[in-house]
Amino acid sequence: xxxxxxxxxxxxxxxxxxxxxxxxxxxxxxxxxxxxxxxxxxxxxxxxxxxxxxxxxxxxxxxxxxxxxxxxxxxxxxxxxxxxxxxxxxxxxxxxxxxxxxxxxxxxxxxxxxxxxxxxxxxxxxxxxxxxxxxxxxxxxxxxxxxxxxxxxxxxxxxxxxxxxxxxxxxxxxxxxxxxxxxxxxxxxxxxxxxxxxxxxxxxxxxxxxxxxxxxxxxxxxxxxxxxxxxxxxxxxxxxxxxxxxxxxxxxxxxxxxxxxxxxxxxxxxxxxxxxxxxxxxxxxxxxxxxxxxxxxxxxxxxxxxxxxxxxxxxxxxxxxxxxxxxxxxxxxxxxxxxxxxxxxxxxxxxxxxxxxxxxxxxxxxxxxxxxxxxxxxxxxxxxxxxxxxxxxxxxxxxxxxxxxxxxxxxxxxxxxxxxxxxxxxxxxxxxxxxxxxxxxxxxxxxxxxxxxxxxxxxxxxxxxxxxxxxxxxxxxxxxxxxxxxxx
Length: 488
Fold this sequence. Notes:
mainly alpha, 2 domains, 5-stranded mixed β-sheet, 9 strands, about 65% helix, globular
């Protein structure tokens, strides 16, 4: 292996470690995997989730990533936790490589690119969008974003066919994330007046797919308005409704377009822009315009407008703003020493922040939690030995409390997982009414009492209760502090 290859491998390894540390450690089954893991499991074993299939399918039918991952597991026989870990690492490496490729058109110093890599490890929320720049687990949204970064880099390099193919691949992985890159590249191509036939064909194909989905596919009938009952279920998801954002969220997000335009103008004055940069900035402005045009439809609670979560396009603008800011800080005045100092500061910040997260904030959490461990993991392993059709009752906030949902960890149906179920309710009114019904039942019958649990079991045909305290019920299994009781 050459010295250059060794250096690249060390940089890639450091990037993965720092990004993971700054995300408070990798965790299988966390957060949004409460949807993706069960969706994949259903393809591997159709007997799973006979009760919760409608909820899982309400979002799963909008993508092909669950079918794809299920096929990979079936063909390779790799375990789902290992596959998700490999995809997590691959996503980070793809993001790093794409950012370096794109950043090289903006930044002339190697140290400036090192600063960009360090900055990307600093996980942060995209204000009031429900998305983060990095996640502590594999998420198709992150993979689609990394592919989108590559698509922009290749567009800059006039590789229109390759860029178009990547946009189509990104759309297959995560349609809405890909859509923001399609708008960026499409608008930039119009302004560049360099529309290649492959790019036109790719955008046209995505447009045809979009029309088919909204007229005859799973998105049909979504141009109506959400009623009060539906909105009540998703009301706490305030990131869906920008007109309810606080002032600081507006300021943070809109500042990205200001940074992009101001820095671009400074680069133009110094004749530092590359061919196509003017058009790319025009594409960024077009993205912001799409957000403004979308607002009235979101405010009117048009179902499809809400479900598209257009505010997440600020993630793309956030990325571009970071690249421009690094140029302004490190290369506004040409100085190799300046870019070196900036790189060292950002690397030190990433190391310090990552170390604090792992050693101080979460000292008991491993850097890579590939499997679900502890009392919850043991309890859920036992749950997997129960009949596939069994129904379970747990704390509605159990996914937050234990780090993974019962569906993900135990492979079984659960009465309610509040955080994810209320999010999925956005996609289907019937699911929203199901969530509302169960929340009302839980309010009337406390799940953590023997009488309440048994009443809920009679109402919904539940078989087991998992709880962290003793109750006068028949115990089926014990895992440390967790009790699993039979309800019938």
